[in-house]
């Protein structure tokens, strides 16, 4: 389990780290940020690890902490840590696990982390029942997209990759056409052939045929060169490198 701490009071951040490691020394702290700007810069780097959980202060040094939640993956759970109780209703409209008032009490932190584990790690019996009840999802052969006042049907063979940018998902074709699609990347992973498409990081799902070359860096880091070029560098997330290599070798 790894967490990201967003807190503009240095002493509070240090105390929070100590309390988290007192609860479980194996929890990895991915980083500590005091501002909205620095936090969003972290999330904009596609080679950075996504946290399993956010500890988020409401008032940061440059802006409202809720601005972060408006610009990142909404599926990341959050434990709010703040001195202000009046934001609790707004907090629970997000994927909020708990709302802890400062100074943070160790017992309350333990209860919040226990609650997180119950929510994200259901019991085996519950997991099995969910799997059994989940209907089979058909792999799409084409995607319906809007082009002005027209509707176009794009065969999946023409898709180079899907990307997620500025709160929207896009389909990019081999001939550089770009369309918005009404699916999340998580859903698109389910709707595409896993032998042909791979989600290399949180922002892009690529087709094997769109990969023109792969550049290796130290520490196992991989950079993809795609056709057509997306206009930004595409790295395989470190935690997906092994799976990506296995996928390439199928």
Task: Explain what this protein looks like in three dimensions.
With 250 residues, this protein is an alpha/beta fold. The protein has 2 domains: 2-124, Rossmann fold (3-Layer(aba) Sandwich); 142-248, OB fold (Dihydrolipoamide Acetyltransferase, E2P) (Beta Barrel). 28% of the residues lie in helices and 31% in strands. It is built from 8 helices and 15 strands. It has helices at residues 10-23, 36-44, 66-69, 88-91, 106-120, 124-133, 185-191, 241-248, and strands at 2-6, 28-33, 53-56, 78-82, 96-101, 142-147, 150-155, 159-165, 168-173, 178-181, 197-201, 204-207, 211-216, 222-226, 234-236. The two termini are 30 Å apart.
- The strand count comes to 15
What coarse outline follows from CA principal-axis ratios? elongated
| CATH architecture descriptor of the largest domain | 3-Layer(aba) Sandwich
* Category by helix and strand content: alpha/beta
Radius of gyration: 20 Å
The succession of helices and strands, N to C, reads EHEHEHEHEHHEEEEEHEEEEEH
Tally of separate domains = 2
CATH class of the largest domain: Alpha Beta
Number of helical regions:
8
- Rounded mean pLDDT is 85
For the report, how would you describe the main beta sheet? 5 strands, parallel
GO molecular function: DNA binding; phosphorelay response regulator activity
Pfam families: LytTR, Response_reg
Protein name: Response regulator transcription factor
Domain HTH LytTR-type: 143-250
At a glance:
The protein is α/β, with parallel strands linked by helices and 250 residues long. The chain has helices at residues 10-23, 36-44, 66-69, 88-91, 106-120, 124-133, 185-191, 241-248, and strands spanning 2-6, 28-33, 53-56, 78-82, 96-101, 142-147, 150-155, 159-165, 168-173, 178-181, 197-201, 204-207, 211-216, 222-226, 234-236. Pfam families: LytTR (PF04397), Response_reg (PF00072).
